[in-house]
Amino acid sequence: MGDAAKAMAVCLWFDGAAEAAARFYAATFPDSRIDAITRAPGDYPAGRQGDVLTVEFTVCGTPFLGLNGGGGVPHGQAISFQIFTDTQGETDRLWAAIVDNGGQEHACSWCADRWGVNWQIVPRVLTAALSHPDPDARARAFTAMMGMRKIDHAAIAAAVDGEAA
After folding, report:
1. Residue 51 burial (10 A CB sphere; 0-12, 13-18, 19+)
2. Is the pLDDT of residue 8 over 70?
3. Using one digit for the tens of pLDDT, what is the confidence trace for 85-139?
4. How does DSSP assign 54-118, residue by residue?
């Protein structure tokens, strides 16, 4: 990583698509950008001299390193990146950017992008509902969430209030 002050970065393994993924993330998420691209100084098992070897990028202020390490190392659901949203429009935009560009929907705010990286698009209204002081409101919000893929802000708020959405 180019900046000696960095203490940590998340490394994501790709099969030749690190630059494409980093560009997608930089264009999709706020406070995101490409920071550096490193090309291989020689041939390696997954590529040739001059190919993109690593891409340093930032997503929502968090540093990442995309490594073109070759095939056979899939991303798994045991790790996901949570992106917190404030409005339904923001939730809808991020969800569509991931799912409508070769991704997959999963339950309860989870989706995977076309490279298999798992994301949770989590509205703050949901996190507030799931920590509500009233246990009945928490239970209603949880039950509502369990029936969703992309989270519906209004339905979560209605569940907390004990109303049908």
Report:
1. middle
2. yes
3. 999 999 999 999 999 999 999 999 999 999 999 999 999 999 999 999 999 999 9
4. EEEEEETTEEEEEEE--SS----TT--EEEEESSHHHHHHHHHHHHTTT-EE-STTEEE-TTS-E
What band does 7 get if pLDDT is binned at 50, 70 and 90?
A: confident
pTM of the model: 0.90
Residues 79-109, buried b or exposed e (16+ Cβ, 10 A)?
ebbebebeeeebbeebbebbbeeebeebeeb
Full set of structural domains in the chain with CATH: 1-70 (3.10.180.10), 80-165 (3.10.180.10)
In order of 30, 56, 85, 126, 165, the CA distances from 9 in angstroms are 18, 9, 23, 28, 41
